[in-house]
Amino acid sequence: MKFSMIFEAQLVDPTPERERQVIHDCVEQAVLAEEMGFDRIWAVEHHSLTRYAHMSASEIFLTWVAARTSTIRIGHGVVTMPFGYRHPVRVAERAAKLDVLSGGRVDIGPGAILPRPVQDPHPPLFMACSKHDTLKLAAELGIGALVMGFAGADDVRAMRKVYDEAIATRGGERLVSATPNDHFSALCPTIVLDDAERALRLGTRGRRPVDTGTYNAEHAYGSAETAIAYVEQLREIGVDEVMCLIQMGTVPQEACLETIRQWGEKVIPHFRALEA
User: Fold this and answer.
1) Which domains does the chain have, with CATH numbers?
2) Which of 73, 167, 220, 266 has the smallest number of CB atoms closer than 10 Å to its CB?
3) What's the whole-model pTM score?
4) pLDDT, tens digit, 9 for 90 and up, residues 211-243
5) Domain Luciferase-like: where (predicted)?
């Protein structure tokens, strides 16, 4: 099982000063994530969403993080492609250049471009999946699934079943690569503090300003033991990667940093020991 963090640069009461601060806070969190043993970071791409996310030019953010780190993988989760917003060749060029500069740490998509990416034949491909139809499409194309799962473990279990069934029945004619990526990543909203009650308050309040269509307080909010118990559910479901959402709208930076440390010192080692 892999462990990652996803960044949206959420801000409930935005001002230019707070926008600048939250981006630098996200960088600080990403650098600490590498130190604490996380495998990967993801950056979303959203535009003109005043409170939901201020992560627009995510390739710039990821490049800055890549320059500050050396081992953690760098992921676009995901690049905005529909309606001709970006030309696929330009997306591939930027991804390949970041793959070169980061030493082969990028997750996104391929392309016949120069310079060639370090990863052969291309960086792993992923698709954001919030509906069953999207999961089926990702499976048919041989693309990894980034599952939101805000509704909790039961929702993730149902989506894993849809994804697995689609993989088992695909004919192969729609695969976009000779090396399919059947990697299933599930979102895990989390705040973990020594003060478990405060962690629950901060975590549930942090999600409330954001309209995700579903709301569930039974995530990894509380103590490290609470987080381990929730990840155990995801592990039993067959999740390949736990994608931690820590940076949420009203959560202070010091709580984000402590959460990263708690995962690095207690949660991740628990599951690494099981694998060993």
Assistant:
1) 2-275 (3.20.20.30)
2) 266
3) 0.84
4) 455 567 789 999 999 999 999 999 999 999 999
5) 13-110, 112-211
